[in-house]
Design a protein that fits this description.
This protein is α+β, with helices and mostly antiparallel strands. It is built from three helices and seven strands; from the N terminus they run ββββαβββαα. Strands 1, 2, 3, 4, 5, 6 and 7 form a seven-stranded mixed beta sheet that branches. α2 runs antiparallel to α3. The protein starts with a strand and ends with a helix.
Length: 129
């Protein structure tokens, strides 16, 4: 069976409001989600996760431990998305683009409330951050 491979991250930083994570707004779906995207041909899962996080958030990150995966069927093919914890290192000012038109840093509890997908909420809860 063919399946779609994707990877992403739970990007966190320590701020004045405690531990915060970044969420992205995707105008195509009008949703708030964790940064993620499809693997390129012959790309390693971890490399794709970091690349997608950088592309979608413009944050530089340090990849950490594997957190878990999400399985769903967006169309006829099964999609599997693997996630890693990622520590924020630096960022440049965010520039909206057609894929992601906004990002937001929120305390973990607020981020869980804002996420639009139950499976991503559960993943953040289980991440231990």
């Amino acid at each position: 069976m063919d399946f779609i491979k994707a990877a992403g991250g739970i990007v966190y930083r320590h701020g004045e409001r405690g531990t915060e994570i970044v969420l992205v707004h995707r105008p195509k779906y009008d949703d708030w989600s964790l940064p993620k995207g499809k693997l390129e041909r012959d790309e390693r899962w971890q490399d794709a996760a970091v690349r997608e996080v950088v592309e979608e958030t413009q944050c530089q990150v340090r990849i950490g431990e594997f957190v878990g995966l999400i399985l769903y069927r967006p169309n006829r093919n099964l999609k599997v998305t693997l996630f890693w914890l990622m520590e924020w290192v630096d960022e440049v000012p965010f520039t909206p683009n057609p894929e992601v038109d906004a990002i937001v840093w929120l305390p973990v509890a607020d981020a869980i409330q804002k996420l639009d997908h139950v499976d991503e909420k559960d993943l953040v809860r289980k991440s231990g951050i």
